[in-house]
């Protein structure tokens, strides 16, 4: 009897999980479906079966070069993630292993910067970028993306590092390991799953970032977010074209997420299960 | 002597280097048919100007406005040419944000620009933006449904006729609505239509002393007429319909009449996109016998920001893109029907264009019937037919648009919406220092 209930619970839980997953995934699915419709079909109302035309894709391809935007997206998301890790690993290390009275406050303060609406600092940032000649440059945008994602990266790494027993590091120190050796040979290998998932999440966040990447670029450094936004039209139908552009823009990150989902899930639950 | 030779040598060397180095200009634009077509035709420009390279940045309309405003206000210099509308030009020109277009070339023929459009783009007699395409609004109607209703559309209908026709044409069992009008909130959406409509009812946004006028009977008449008309003969969910939604409805044969941008004529008469392409007739926007019609005036225009380092190259481009020659280039590649409309008088005198675009005369008449400096019956302190060319209008127009959209959806009464609009406008004008 107990066994039957368990199976029943399992079925319900599985069904519920599927429903939730489908609900979350549905907007993306519908975008993909719409991208295979004609403009007329796209605006005609809800329909799950598209006519299967690829005219939107060929129009999107003809109208602007996808590859240049794609390359910028890759450079910006990977570059800003590497920069962020370089800064965040030492920061998280010091906060996890030699905390002071104010460590918690610093962490909270860092997170609080994420609560500020980005547009509030648009003008100061724009002026700084203008005066340092960084407008429409990949380097400038990499730093910007690194800075806005840094609080999350530090927080995540801090949580992972806290799970590592300080005694192991102490033992390494007793064996005469320098600070550098301690971080590179002892801490980092133990925290690889955590670092990997932080990295993946940060790449996704940087890839999707649409406020600064649109506002601080014009042509040279514009990533896929700018590519999508160019297909919204004030006059004329554009839903199918916009869907095709969006599908092209999210496809790489979707595929990357698919392949690395194990690491992502493991990393995200790493600190919580203990 | 030596120094002079050296200086001269250096100067000529740098001049040579400059000539060899192609200058690139960045153009910010919106994504619409005419602009996309222009991007495809730029080879013509670059072959005539091999020393100028063109970079395009296409953005969604609201993002473009925000990006361009940020750049121009901070003199960021990211753009050398920007696409802006008749709303921005007078405001920005007064701020000295735009360069006057005085080097468009001898053969440019600026006098050929339609006077109503040129007037909206000039400040103190100087042209600050060159129109790329212009539009007004008019009535598009189904000739077959009008005949079935036993009516004949006059060239210049009244609002009463529109109401009568709309009610007769409505056949909701067969999915036909008598009239489709904008209802989606936004200063460029429902407020463009309603402000233009209110002009024909004698209403105005502000009196000569900038006092808001939503508490006056003219606005009440406008909004009540609009809400009643849409209730009796409009489509379901009209409060979320903008230009694109109504276009789709009309193309699918679900509207008897549609009052909107003249540029829509080429979409509804296109047999590839429209199921009713051969049944569409055109008429001037309606009036109420007060001497003003409910049509607007808009022109997407190319302007040069004051922060640019490449003003000469930018002017060359603007001159090319808005010239008579450009219209001929489009005609030779894609036919006269695709020439950018609403900017030059000569286009409308061209018999080939008249043949290719049956809506040409009505478009020109509509544009000529709009006067941005005297938009409505009573005098006003502002410029603009379907907008008020002050910086506060974007925010205020959208707020009022939301109130009126709610009245259309039945969420509030006409009187409540007008009262709240009056309060919002009074607050915005007080804050802006227009009134005490």
From TrEMBL, chain A:
GO terms for cellular component: plasma membrane. Keywords: Cell membrane, Membrane, Transmembrane, Transmembrane helix, Transport. It is a multi-pass membrane protein. Residues 70-260 form the ABC transmembrane type-1 domain. It holds the Pfam family BPD_transp_1. GO terms for biological process: transmembrane transport. Its main location: membrane. Coiled coil: none annotated. The chain crosses the membrane at residues 12-33, 74-94, 106-129, 141-161, 182-207, 238-259. It is found in: Cell membrane. PANTHER family: INNER MEMBRANE ABC TRANSPORTER PERMEASE PROTEIN YCJP, MALTOSE TRANSPORT SYSTEM PERMEASE-RELATED. Belongs to the binding-protein-dependent transport system permease family. This is Carbohydrate ABC transporter permease.
């Amino acid at each position: 009897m107990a066994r039957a209930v368990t199976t029943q619970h399992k079925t319900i839980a599985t069904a519920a999980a599927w429903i939730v997953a489908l609900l979350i995934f549905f907007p993306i699915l519908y975008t993909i479906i719409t991208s295979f419709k004609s403009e007329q079909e796209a605006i005609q109302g809800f329909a799950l079966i598209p006519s299967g035309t690829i005219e939107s894709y060929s129009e999107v391809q003809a109208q602007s070069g996808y590859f240049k935007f794609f390359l910028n997206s890759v450079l910006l998301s990977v570059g800003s993630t590497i920069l962020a890790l370089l800064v965040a690993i030492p920061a998280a290390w010091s906060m996890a292993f030699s905390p002071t009275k104010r460590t918690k406050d610093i962490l909270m303060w860092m997170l609080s910067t994420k609560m500020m609406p980005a547009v509030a600092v648009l003008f100061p940032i724009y002026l700084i970028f203008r005066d340092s000649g960084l407008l429409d440059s990949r380097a400038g945008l990499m730093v910007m993306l690194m800075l806005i994602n840094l609080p999350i990266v530090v927080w995540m790494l801090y949580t992972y590092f806290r799970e590592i027993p300080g005694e192991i590091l102490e033992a390494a120190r007793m064996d005469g390991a320098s600070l550098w050796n301690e971080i590179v040979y002892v801490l980092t290998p133990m925290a690889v799953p955590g670092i990997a998932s932080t990295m993946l999440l940060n790449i996704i966040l940087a890839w999707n970032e649409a406020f600064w990447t649109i506002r601080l670029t014009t042509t040279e450094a514009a990533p896929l977010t700018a590519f999508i936004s160019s297909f919204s039209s004030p006059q004329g139908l554009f839903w199918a074209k916009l869907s095709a552009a969006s599908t092209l823009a999210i496809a790489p990150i979707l595929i990357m997420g698919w392949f690395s989902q194990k690491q992502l899930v493991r990393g995200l639950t790493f600190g919580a299960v203990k | 002597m030596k120094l002079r030779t050296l200086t001269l040598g250096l100067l000529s060397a740098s001049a040579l280097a400059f000539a060899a180095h192609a200058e690139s200009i960045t153009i910010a634009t919106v994504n619409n048919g005419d602009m996309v077509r222009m991007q495809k035709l730029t080879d013509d420009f670059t072959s005539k100007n091999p020393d100028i390279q063109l970079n395009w940045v296409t953005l969604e309309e609201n993002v473009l406005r925000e990006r361009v405003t940020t750049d121009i206000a901070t003199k960021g210099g990211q753009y050398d040419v920007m696409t802006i509308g008749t709303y921005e030009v007078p405001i920005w020109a007064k701020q000295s944000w735009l360069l006057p277009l005085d080097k468009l070339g001898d053969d440019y023929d600026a006098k050929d620009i339609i006077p109503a459009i040129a007037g909206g783009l000039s400040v103190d007699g100087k042209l600050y933006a060159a129109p790329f395409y212009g539009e007004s609004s008019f009535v598009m109607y189904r000739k077959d449904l009008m005949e079935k209703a036993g009516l004949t559309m006059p060239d210049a209908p009244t609002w009463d006729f529109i109401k009568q026709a709309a009610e007769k044409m409505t056949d909701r069992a067969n999915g036909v609505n008598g009239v489709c009008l904008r209802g989606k909130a936004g200063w460029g959406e429902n407020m463009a239509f309603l402000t233009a409509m209110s002009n024909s009812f004698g209403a105005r946004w502000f009196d000569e002393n900038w006092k808001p006028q939503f508490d006056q009977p003219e606005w009440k008449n406008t909004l009540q007429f609009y809400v009643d008309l849409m209730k009796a003969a409009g489509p379901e969910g009209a409060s979320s319909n903008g230009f694109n939604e109504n276009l789709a409805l009309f193309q699918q044969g679900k509207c008897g009449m549609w009052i909107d941008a003249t540029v829509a004529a080429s979409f509804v008469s296109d047999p590839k996109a429209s199921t009713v392409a051969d049944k569409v007739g055109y008429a001037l926007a309606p009036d109420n016998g007060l001497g003003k019609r409910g049509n607007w005036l808009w022109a997407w225009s190319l302007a040069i920001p004051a922060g640019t380092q490449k003003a000469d190259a930018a002017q060359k481009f603007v001159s090319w893109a808005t010239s008579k020659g450009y219209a001929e280039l489009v005609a030779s590649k894609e036919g006269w029907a695709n020439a950018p409309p609403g900017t030059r008088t000569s286009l409308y005198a061209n018999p080939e264009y008249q043949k290719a675009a049956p809506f040409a005369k009505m478009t020109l008449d509509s544009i000529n019937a709009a006067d941005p400096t005297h938009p409505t019956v009573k005098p006003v302190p502002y410029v603009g037919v379907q907008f008020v060319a002050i910086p506060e209008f974007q925010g205020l127009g959208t707020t009022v648009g939301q109130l009126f959209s709610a009245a259309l959806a039945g969420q509030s009464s006409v009187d409540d919406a007008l009262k709240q609009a009056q309060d919002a406008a009074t607050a915005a004008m007080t804050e802006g220092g227009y009134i005490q």
